[in-house]
Design a protein that fits this description.
368 residues; alpha+beta; 60s Ribosomal Protein L30, Chain: A; Phosphoribosyl-aminoimidazole Synthetase, Chain A, domain 2; 2 domains; 7-stranded mixed sheet; 11 helices; 15 strands; 26% strand; phosphoribosylamine-glycine ligase activity; PurM_cligase; PurM-like_N_sf; ligase; EC 6.3.3.1
Length: 368
């Protein structure tokens, strides 16, 4: 038995620090809203007026949840916390838009060893900024202090979002046809996948996050913390523009081939030409870690954050529309029958439980 009374604060949880964090994040959260949001910050549940759905013919809800993975370790090492939230939003809402759904609202969860109000507010400011970019309302969240489970400077983030789409406008394998074009959309860098490999490679090379890298034009840490590009608004514009958009794929864990295969119907093959030069960070990971190409492509996005599958007649306009949003896009291949597979390259088929189509990566990346 202890001689002194034990309080929640002495056990490591500071309720007052949590309240201070909420005060600091209020302005950021206020900017990440939509007219349908009811109530304000601090309720037990976020509320969203769904009456607009009554005007839809057959609304289908889409939901997604995700985190940022070990990229948070770099944010913690560099003491830079206002970008990781945009990564979280991108990872969640851009999974929803794959189905053609418009993301509506999002909630977040931050677990930390110690609530430092300014740090929590910085994380939430990044989440709110990401929600603004995506047109999504941040309707609620939770910050949990876990002393003894996490070190004082450690934290992790997760989030979930909900969207809606008309049932007859859902994108996916059922729409894909032979002759469709595969369009690549440029990433902003590593995004939020493969950081266990990236961290291991540069630790083995003895590179610190503050190392200035000439090929990158900035420090290694700045490059690795570049926020994930958020594609939802531009892609929804494409989906509504009658371009013959049939399927979308978010290039995350597993790489381009595996994620593209998930949105193709069984019995077709998408051939992807390595016709683009990946940004310098991907070559540095490969070189410093002596990572084999197959392993690299299964782990990192190689400069392509999203893939669209659409009718040939819509490609030129799609490229122009995406350029208007600052997103470079280019054709990388086409959908054919399985007999078109080449014998000099592996075929990827079936990923994450989906028995879909097949994808074959061919050729060599051009050097800059």
């Amino acid at each position: 038995m202890t001689d002194q009374p034990i309080t929640y604060a002495s056990a490591g949880v500071d309720v007052h620090a949590g309240d201070r964090a909420v005060e600091l994040m209020k302005e950021s959260v206020r900017r990440a809203s939509r007219p349908e949001v009811l109530g304000g910050l601090g309720g037990f549940a976020g509320m969203f007026d769904a009456s607009a759905l009554k005007g839809m013919r057959h609304p289908v809800l889409a939901s997604s949840t995700d985190g940022v993975g070990t990229k948070v370790a770099i944010a913690q090492a560099m003491d830079v916390h206002d970008t990781i939230g945009q990564d979280l939003v991108g990872m969640v809402v851009d999974d929803i838009v794959v189905s053609g759904a418009e993301p509506l609202f999002m909630t977040d969860y931050i677990a930390c060893g110690k609530v430092v109000p300014e740090r929590i507010a910085a994380i939430v400011s990044g989440i709110a900024r990401g929600c603004e970019l995506a047109g999504v309302a941040l309707v609620g969240g939770e910050t949990a202090e876990h002393p003894g489970l996490l070190d004082p400077d450690e934290y992790d983030v997760a989030g979930a979002a909900t969207g809606v789409v008309e049932r007859d406008e859902v994108l996916g394998p059922h729409r894909v046809q032979e002759g469709d074009v595969v369009l690549a959309l440029a990433s902003s860098g590593l995004h939020s996948n493969g950081y266990s490999l990236v961290r291991r490679v540069f630790a083995a090379a003895g590179w610190g996050w503050d190392r200035h890298v000439e090929e990158l034009g900035r420090t290694l840490g700045e490059e690795c913390l570049e926020p994930t590009r958020i594609y939802s608004r531009p892609l929804l514009e494409l989906a509504r523009a009658d371009l013959g958009l049939h399927a979308l794929s978010h290039v995350t864990g597993g790489g381009l081939a595996a994620n593209l295969a998930r949105v193709l119907p069984a019995g077709v093959l998408a051939t992807v030409e390595r016709c683009w030069t990946p940004p310098a960070i991907f070559g540095l990971v490969q070189e410093q870690g002596r990572v084999e190409l197959g392993d690299l492509e299964q782990t990192l996005n190689m400069g392509v954050g999203f893939v669209a599958v659409l009718a040939p007649e819509g490609v030129e306009r799609a490229v122009q529309m995406l350029a208007g949003h600052g997103i470079e896009a280019w054709a990388v291949g086409a959908v054919t029958g399985p007999d078109a597979a080449r014998h000099d390259a592996p075929v990827v088929q079936g990923a994450k439980g989906v028995d879909g189509g097949a994808v074959q990566m061919v050729g060599s990346y051009p050097t800059s």
